[in-house]
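Deliverable D5.2: sample structural annotation.
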Amino acid sequence: MLIRIRKASDVSSGEITAESLYLRRRDFLRGVAGAAGALAAGDLLAGCTRSDDRASREPGPLNAERNPKYGTAEEPTAYAKATGYNNFYEFGTDKSDPAAYAGSLITKPWSVEITGEANKPGTIGVEDLIQPFPLEERIYRHRCVEGWSMVIPWIGIPLGEVIKRFEPNSFAKFVAFRTLHDPKQMPGQHDDVLSWPYIEGLRLDEAMHPLTLLAVGMYGRELPNQNGAPLRLVVPWKYGFKSIKSIVGIRLAAAKPDTTWNRMAPVEYGFYSNVNPEVDHPRWSQKTERRIGEFLRRPTLPFNGYGEEVASLYTGMDLHREF
């Protein structure tokens, strides 16, 4: 059965991450490139517009109930830093590039195509995708593979509830996600630093886990373009590159999907990419992290501090080999 639903402040690299690590990562990327409708809270996408209007249009307010089950006593990262220091290579490889250039992304209308091993595949507008579910605010830790971290109040809905809507069949074992590919709107896609479109994936049980969130907002506001508007994944126990942004496709798959970073550098970026202080990146340690806004480094927690909730997903696995 086929469902068809109508589409309805700068931060220096030295302040956040050791400069030597930052420069080595940039050199590595260059080398690889050469070798290789509306919600009750208001209109979800009203604040995301063309770049020529972005100076006067900020992400609007987005109401959501705080879910007390998901939170941390840690102080959230300042909004200006969380929105001004990002990895989103579709808009450039510098941390300030997404905030500078993501205004070119038009996020309304926006639809998501669900394909693959599903009894009810379909194409659906973002508003219709999330409307059946109450929006939740969850304060999650975010850990980047480069060694920096944030604490962010996300607003969204559980991914698992969305997946259930499309009825995965018995062959579905994995979920693949695809970012928009449109170099006219995403100028970083003119560069071959990565293969486009950006693809990420999870095992189905990871995708269905209650912690996994489809985010549409942050800090009580709609999601800014540079943070993945209008729809992004948040998987808080994994490194940040697993939390794919600006999603246009979700595919239920029988086999483990190829993912962008794993395909480009499998020794450095494993499919699972769980935060693990005992498994170093080949070019730097993962034992500590620098929280944005803090000077000193802190120890990195296994599974980014979510081990009690998710460690059972990996019982019997060699987490050094399946990294």
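Annotation notes: DSSP finds nine helices and 14 strands in the chain. Residues 1-56 have pLDDT under 50 and may be disordered.
The annotation will be released with the project's public dataset once the embargo ends.
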